[in-house]
Write a structure and sequence with these properties.
The structure is a single chain. With 225 residues, the protein is α/β, with parallel strands linked by helices. It has two domains: 131 residues, Rossmann fold, CATH 3.40.50.1360; 66 residues, 2-Layer Sandwich (Alpha-Beta Plaits). It has six helices and 13 strands. The protein has a six-stranded mixed β-sheet with strand order 2-1-3-6-12-13. The two termini are 27 Å apart. It binds ribulose-5-phosphate.
Length: 225
């Protein structure tokens, strides 16, 4: 198993029979879907919700039924990846463009478990460009307002060169801060801009970060631990 697989495998052990489970998005979360599917095939009974259309498709292909998110009252455990995680378990997410649904599902979760390889652990958030989901109308105005917070911005595009459209029919502006000295403050400032739907800073949401290491070990960093 590689580092991503190791982290995902450990996280899936937290799923118990009867739980409502959030399935994350991205290449690490993919492995959690894979291992969850193996446990479901072996008899585990869960209700699963997805953080993106891509994840819903991958889960269904593997025999996991996906329940619409509004049909569950809460989520017992949500397992998702991250682009960066700091020692306070604050995160940058949204590299895969699914940050809004990921944040909504994580907010409804009793336990939000992040899975990552070692490369995602950072001293300070910000080297990874912060994804911000914005409505299409007024893009230039929203872009300027974001730039006034001290970043360069890039409109996310597909490999074909057209703007990337999220599952919620919005654009993503990737904001290059390089370093974010005060992530909780920035999260609020960005979301106060009209035209911004949400941003990829996940503050004080993760309960546990499970890190797969290249030497084959797995470490768990727990909130307050
Ligand atoms: C998608 C995400 C992903 O969880 C994040 O980008 C990490 O992805 P990967 O596991 O492929 O590195 O936030 O929107």
């Amino acid at each position: 198993m590689n580092a991503k697989q190791l982290a995902a495998y450990r996280a899936v052990e937290y799923i118990q029979d009867g739980m409502i489970v959030g399935l994350g998005t991205g290449s690490t979360a993919f492995w959690a879907i894979e291992y969850t599917a193996q446990r479901v095939a072996a008899g585990l009974k869960i209700t699963a919700v997805a953080t993106s259309e891509d994840t819903a498709g991958k889960a269904r292909e593997r025999g996991i039924e996906i329940t619409p998110f509004d049909e569950v009252p809460y989520v017992d455990v949500d397992i998702d990846g991250a682009d960066e995680a700091d020692k306070d378990l604050n995160l940058i997410k949204g590299g895969g463009g699914a940050l809004l649904r990921e944040k909504i599902v994580a907010s409804a979760s009793r336990q939000f478990i992040v899975i990552a390889d070692e490369s995602k652990l950072v001293e300070k958030l910000g080297r990874f460009p912060l994804p911000v989901e914005v409505v299409i109308f007024g893009l230039e105005h929203t872009t300027r307002a974001l730039q006034s917070l001290g970043c360069k911005t890039t409109l996310r595009t597909t490999p074909g060169g057209v703007p990337f459209i999220t599952d919620n029919n919005n654009y993503i502006l990737d904001c290059h801060f390089e370093v974010i000295p005060n992530a909780p403050e920035l999260e609020k400032k960005i979301n106060a801009i009209t035209g911004v739907v949400d941003n990829g800073l996940f503050i004080n949401m993760a309960e546990r970060v499970i890190v797969g290491c290249n030497d084959g070990t797995v470490k768990e960093i727990v909130k307050g631990g």
